[in-house]
Fold:
Amino acid sequence: MDKSNLAFCMTLAGTVCWGVCFWWMRRLSIKQNALLDQLREQGKRIEKLSKIEHDLIKEVHPQVNEIKEGMEEMIAVVKENVENNPPPAAKKKGH
Structure:
């Protein structure tokens, strides 16, 4: 095999390798783009859910404070009733 044929074979092999490499990189690029699209969609869904959750928390938060205030009033009333009218078990222990 002379130098001319060897150069031609090496050039041909290099061209084929370049084609395979190009195909492989294109395949990877397509997969990456598909994954990035999925991640963008997931991010949009998470943002939407976070906004809904935030709106719900804002809506419920004042109600939580009202419930706490109501519970404090109930605790005070129960303590007052227990002090004024001890439960029957406490009356028996004292006699």
Q: What stands out?
A: The chain has a mean pLDDT of 85. The two ends are 122 Å apart (CA to CA). The CA atoms of residues 7 and 13 lie 10 Å apart.
